[in-house]
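Async update (no meeting this week)

Hi team, since we skipped the sync, here's where things stand on the single-chain job. The sequence we agreed to prioritize is pasted below, unchanged from the tracker. I ran it this morning and attached the output directly underneath so nobody has to dig for it. Comments welcome in thread, and please keep replies under the output.
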Amino acid sequence: MSLWKIAWRSIQQRALASALTAFSMALGVALVVAVIVIHGVIDQSFRRGAQGYDLIVGAKGSPLELVLAAVYHLGRVPANMSYDAYDELVNGQFAADIEVAIPICLGDNFKGFRVIGTTPDMFARLEYLGGRKYEFAEGRNFDDVAPREAVIGATAARKTGLKVGDTFRPVHGSAATRGEEHEPFEIVGVLAPTGTPNDRAIFVNIEGFYQMHTKSPEEPDRALPAMKAETKPKSQAADPQSKEQDENVPEKGESAAGKSEDEPGEKQESHAEHKHHHEGIPDEHKEITAVLVVLNPKIPPPRQIALPKLISKQLDVQAVAPAEQIDNMLRGIVGNVQLVLLILAVMIVVVAGIGIMVSIYNSMSDRRHEIAIIRALGARRTTIMVVVLLESILLALGGGAAGLVLGHGLTGVLSPIIADQTGVSVNPFQFQLSELILIPGLIVLATAVGYLPAVVAYRTDVAQSLIASP
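Output:
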């Protein structure tokens, strides 16, 4: 009989104790796997999500906050930059350095999903994940001349139930602070899944976004005649002379000669409102949250390196590289959290290994007679020692295999929560290279914890054990 078979039979004889020790090992390994996989996928997703843009330009403040809001649609909305700065960026001294510059406006939501004002170039000219083009699962891109059209991401469409042809009313503010509802937008396109945070956003025509938030200068003037009309009877009653003067004043809709104009009264009001909602908003009434910038690949590397500082200085804004900010975040914040979780998980694995040692050691007193018989049949001391070590290794590897399955299953359970909170899709069947360390690590741990019971078995006195046993 081989050593492996003897070790396996020993495990079967102690089925309950072996199952408990293997289960504790499986829990520890599952936590290690979950931490490694989730961190690896989030790290990869965040880095890939920042690949579509070279620079993010916005008002001065926290660079990380700007990147999280503009690229990942997370956190609070930062301050706005002036439209003049954006115009100078795309038409001024930096025009030759920039290939694509997409403005975005934040500040509204629909059922917890960010509503982003932007231009059709967002999906026509930008790329994601290293050169992929945006595609539409349904419908089309919104049009420049249609301010009330919108495009919705795949996840947002699934969660809200919106589809092509449906309308929705954005709400001012975040999901936590519900504000007033705006005029409706019509969904004209549903994006194909991209695996980026844009899956969790709703994009509207930037002109429609401005119309929601910008008041026309005509509005106070239109309200003023109505106020005068309400106070007019009182003033006439108090002053008869003013009444005579008012009779000589042409009424609204009449010319000085007493002729009626083309469209008096409410029709003029309606025409003014129609004009207000369909004409473009003047630039002085516009603000922008951020600009997504793709640099011209033909500019020399020294110019690319110096460009963020030049833009920040000349335009009184901040220009940040999203990849750099995400790298700092993953190293400085997420990396430290992952390290702490990994240490805790490894400690659980070590405790499970100690449990294997205690279980095998406590069984030595019950197995002395069996060991003595094997020795009497000609087995050497080293053979008995190897059998005990193999038993420890089999328990560790069995628990490790169960832990791998359990860990990826745990990742699958957590993936919808991670996707809802961060927009990052976690694939439970995605394996990380660092998981390969688990196999040799478990073998080393099992050998270390099985050494003491193996030494006890090695030193078993055959004669005394046969005499002491009934």
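Quick observations from my side:
Residues 3-46+328-467 form one domain.
The first strand starts at residue 55 and ends at 58.
Reply here if anything looks off.
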